[in-house]
């Protein structure tokens, strides 16, 4: 690896200048006036992949923003690694909170500042340069490599899932590698082996045709707020468990290995509570913080409202009340089935005299993969040799639908090898990427491609 | 009574012209620019009382609007009747919804239209003219009469309670008569023998210092909306009863007579539900609609809010949630004690990890009097002879603090003899007063004053 250290050190300025060029393109997928920039960003990437030595480089038109595809399949009998990333970025508001303009990349304090620096151009760039480095140094790649890079990640677009379904044979691989996440903290790499799924709904409870006066009717007619609050209060028991019948079906029992992994990065819970301004954490009894957020499903009220919200008193009996609910799902919990179960629970527990209307909003499957999988263990090895500490396998409480889609469509392990840091302001002003992880990331990825050559191909 | 029929018929135009004069004065107590009109209205009334033959007529200055006091104590050994009313009126917005201007009284369809026509100038005017009629016809009153008329009724002012406390000896009487309410429906007189008290509070539940992301924290931290909704859901049991310990202390058991009275005007509950757009009414088990609203206390959520109320989904764990609550009270339930009991209940049932802040807002005592009291039975007799049907004794679900104050300070029965109708638009555009009840009201009040002469004085 010392050869590569030298190689990257000698070319560091040149590489950073190239990245700055890409980061200067305001490829904001959410804003139609940046359509041209989106195309320019895709084109820039395609050119960079060609320069790196990828053989086939294609820009696939979609109904939304194009998908950049590239491959180099010159390692017969060796595994195929598919690298995923995205070339679009978030909007930049509020602009006045940026220290330097978001599309004028600036290096200071060992960090590169720009929109997209860590999410995800900077991290994807590492893969391009890792491939290029191996080809320059060795003339060939130790494995077959494919790139799939989309331009709709920040707008939850539908083009990529469609592309995956339609090209599942072409995209066949032994591992999907994604660098769009972060280390646990500086110097502590992690590989995420679980993401929670999601389903969401909005419920409306109605009672009388109009709001009623509590002097004339109080105590004798249904109150939409009583009906709603008593209804949603039935969704959890006193120990924080969700009471919806069948809700936990498909939730895997944690293995000892998983418990160990989760324990290895469980925070000091008392300190965490204090940091959040809480007397105590709260959740399903019998589980730690990382187990609750990473490996257990949850049902949360995100909004509740009805009746009078102004100053003072209004003696009104409200005719309607609303609640927004999201569930985070794990294992094989089915989002639609979960929504149906919640519906059944709500109808069963509705107070007499109240009517219920339910709107389903989102559905996303959970993602989970086995940390003992060879492709994941090799990634941990690759990190260890560069960072001096082995990557921790984590379960993340959030939801990234595309990861579950890759996993289910391509049936390959997904290796989430992130090089960001938790405080790099993604989606916020002053987004940046640590140059220390830029350097270590390049070496880790070169290392990983070499290691996977030893794994057996599909 | 036929003499009085003729008397009033002959003077009807003159009386209506006088009332129109008073109704032309825009004595809106809520608006400071009408301060002069308030004084003019008080002065007009004082003059009318003098013309009617009241002996002592005083305008008492207060820190707010003046109180008009009058008395004629020339029936030694006979009971004393204190007549209460108010000479101020509500604001008139929205002005464009009035068919004729609110302060240009207009007679059409057997009704007089103007702000204050039924609430309360028109009704109080009946008492002035009843007294005047007896004095003109008979030269003396069969009982002693006092008038106490305030100008702050529509702004819930503090001057009258203070005046009552300070002048309780001067105001001593055998009955307080108030005409500021309505018949049950045309031709069906009623006497209200109960008004509910009130207490109100606002509660705020807080959890973490900031809103948290449900991906990172969902299932492992307290959610203010869970804490609030599960908390307020504990305030009622499944049968609609309030579960706060001691809440029902001071709630009287209904006597058979009261049950009969309440049953006599209980609506067709199925029809009422359908009219309100409800599948069914709902309330404390074992009670009818009129029992629930008239004789039972209640605790209502008037507003609940927290978290995200916009379109779509936001995966937020809210840090705070709010609820507004009012209770209607009956019998000797103490408003402050009730608030304290609710506080204790809420603190006892608060979920771990949540903090609670409670703000008490209003407190008013309930009013109740015994319908078998002689002064009330005589009022029912007086109605019966004029309307041909006996007045029903009702319990009203609303709260009128001044009634409870009269009852507690003067220790006299309060006779709520209203002559309005439920649909006369008080507090709304096109307020009016039925001339049929104007005519019958005069006769009923003359009748009542004669009847009370037979009751024993204090």
UniProtKB/TrEMBL annotation, chains A, B:
Give the record's keywords alphabetically. Hydrolase, Metal-binding, Protease
Question: Annotated Gene Ontology MF terms?
Answer: metal ion binding; peptidase activity
What is one process in the GO biological process aspect for this record?
A: proteolysis
Plastid listed as a keyword: no
Write one Pfam family the protein is assigned to: Peptidase_M20
Repeat found in the keyword field: no
Q: Which domain of life is it from?
A: Bacteria
Q: Which residues form the Peptidase M20 dimerisation domain?
A: 193-352
Q: Which InterPro entries match?
A: Cyt/Met_Dipeptidase, Peptidase_M20, Peptidase_M20_dimer
Q: What is this protein called?
A: Dipeptidase
Annotated source species: Cohnella lubricantis
């Amino acid at each position: 690896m010392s050869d590569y250290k030298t190689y990257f050190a000698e070319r560091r300025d040149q590489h950073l200048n190239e990245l700055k060029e890409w980061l200067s393109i305001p490829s904001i997928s959410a804003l139609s006036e940046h359509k041209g920039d989106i195309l320019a960003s895709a084109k820039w990437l395609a050119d960079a992949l060609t320069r790196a030595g990828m053989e086939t480089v294609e820009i696939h038109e979609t109904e939304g923003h194009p998908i950049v595809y590239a491959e180099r399949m010159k390692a017969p009998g060796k595994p195929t690694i598919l690298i995923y990333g995205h070339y679009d970025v978030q909007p930049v508001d509020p602009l006045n909170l940026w220290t330097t303009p978001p599309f004028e990349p600036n290096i200071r304090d060992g960090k590169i500042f720009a929109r997209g620096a860590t999410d995800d151009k900077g991290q994807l760039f590492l893969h391009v340069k890792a491939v290029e480095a191996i080809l320059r140094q060795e003339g060939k790649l130790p494995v077959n490599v494919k790139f799939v890079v989309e331009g709709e990640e920040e707008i939850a677009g539908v083009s990529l899932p469609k592309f995956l379904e339609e090209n599942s044979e072409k995209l066949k691989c032994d591992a999907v590698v994604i660098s769009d996440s972060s280390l646990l903290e500086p110097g502590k790499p992690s590989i995420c082996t679980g993401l929670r799924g999601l389903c969401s709904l909005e419920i409306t409870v109605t009672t009388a045709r109009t709001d009623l006066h509590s002097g004339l009717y109080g105590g004798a007619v249904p109150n939409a707020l009583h009906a709603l609050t008593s209804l949603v209060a039935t969704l959890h028991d006193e120990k924080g468990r969700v009471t919806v019948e069948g809700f936990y079906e498909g939730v895997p029992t944690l293995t000892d290995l998983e418990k160990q992994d989760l324990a290895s990065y469980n925070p000091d819970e008392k300190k965490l509570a204090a940091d959040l301004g809480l007397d105590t954490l709260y959740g399903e009894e019998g589980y730690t913080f990382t187990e609750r957020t990473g490996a257990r499903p949850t049902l949360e009220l995100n909004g509740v409202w009805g009746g009078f919200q102004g100053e003072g008193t209004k003696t009104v009996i409200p005719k309607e009340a609303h609640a927004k609910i999201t569930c985070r799902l794990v294992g094989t919990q089915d989002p639609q089935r979960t929504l149906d179960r919640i519906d059944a629970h709500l109808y069963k527990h509705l107070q007499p005299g109240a009517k219920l209307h339910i709107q389903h909003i989102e559905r996303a499957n959970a993602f989970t993969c086995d940390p003992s999988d060879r492709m994941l263990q090799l990634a941990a090895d690759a990190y260890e040799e560069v960072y001096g500490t082995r990557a921790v396998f984590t379960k993340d409480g959030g939801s990234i639908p595309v990861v579950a889609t890759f996993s289910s469509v391509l049936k390959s392990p997904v290796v989430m090898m992130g090089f960001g840091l938790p405080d790099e302001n993604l989606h916020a002003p002053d987004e940046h990427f640590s140059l220390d992880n830029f350097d270590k990331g390049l070496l880790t990825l070169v290392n990983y491609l070499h290691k996977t050559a030893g794994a057996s191909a599909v």
